[in-house]
Amino acid sequence: MSYPDHLRPSSTSTDSASERPRRASRRDRWDDSPAPTRRGSRRDAVARQELEGDAREGFAPRLPVDGARSAAHPGLLLDDLGPDRRWSTWRAVAKGSRGPDPVPSWVVTADAAIDTELGVLKTGKEADVFLLRRAVPDDTPAAHLAGAASSCLLAAKRYRTLEHRAFRRDSVYTEDRRVRRTRDQRALDRRSAYGRLVAQGEWAAAEFAALGELWSAGVPVPYPVQVDGTEVLMEFVAAPDSGRDDAPAAAPRLAQSRPDRDLLGHYWDQVEEAMTAFARLGYAHGDLSPYNVLADGDRLVVIDVPQIVDLAANPFGTDLLHRDCRTMTAWFSARGLDVDADELLARLLASAW
Predict the structure, then answer these.
(1) Which pTM does this prediction carry?
(2) How far apart are CA 271 and CA 160, in angstroms?
(3) Which EC numbers characterise this protein's activity in its record (predicted)?
(4) How many CB atoms neighbour CB 67 within 10 A?
(5) Given this model, what pLDDT does residue 65 score?
(6) Considering the domain 251-353 in this protein, what is its CATH number?
(7) In the prediction, which pLDDT does 35 show?
């Protein structure tokens, strides 16, 4: 082929396309280069621990169920744990979704732990509570390193969808609540399908946050272990001397107890102290009753706090606090203790303001 003189190729560029050196593709450059490293990357550290099987830090391969293959490590076949079992989700949730520091020594935090569901503890208006055992298998190196914290019992509170809840007066308790994202708030206000999903998770998040603040302030509530979507894992309060390691009985509710005169007075002192602690933080329980208080021997533990209300921000706060006072004083008065709801309310409001 002839070219005009001004278009003729120069002698230095006569190589054909097939003779030119092939430019390295991105994949070639990646394969030939050393694996990238990021100083201080937690994800890389965890991956190395999993692949190397290093048990010094309590790590173990996190294998999902159902015989699939790991997305992170395709060469690993996944272990089927069977029904009602799952790998611990302690490290799977975000840092802010785990309980407040200091984490009690009885909480199992090893990745090698397995959650086993033992049964239903309670069914309620808005959620069901299940008993879980989080334990490190005895035949793993992590079990020896975990020591006393190789097994613990947890109460798993799982919120139902709004369509399956018997509790319908949400707006009384959520009057002052706002979510972070404006999209979520708009969905809540419109009561759309997405808004119902947001509301379901917000109740779990509200209870977890309230338990964390109350526990840190010394209020007798279960320790909140973690929250994951609509599930809150918390301390299981067992009945004294239940005598069943496989599935111990839960502590009875105050309504089921039959305290003598001295223990009745001791219980009342604890109730007033707990309500005062709520008020000093600016809160009212909102649904306090003998059914939402556990009698752990001579110690009382307050439970079910998702509807906690801000006394200043919620326009119904004082009314809900007064209702708590009437409910609790009525139970103690029926058993012969001279207590007055209005006097209790006055003391609590004085503590709050």
Answers:
(1) 0.69
(2) 29
(3) 2.7.11.1
(4) 9
(5) 38
(6) 1.10.510.10
(7) 46
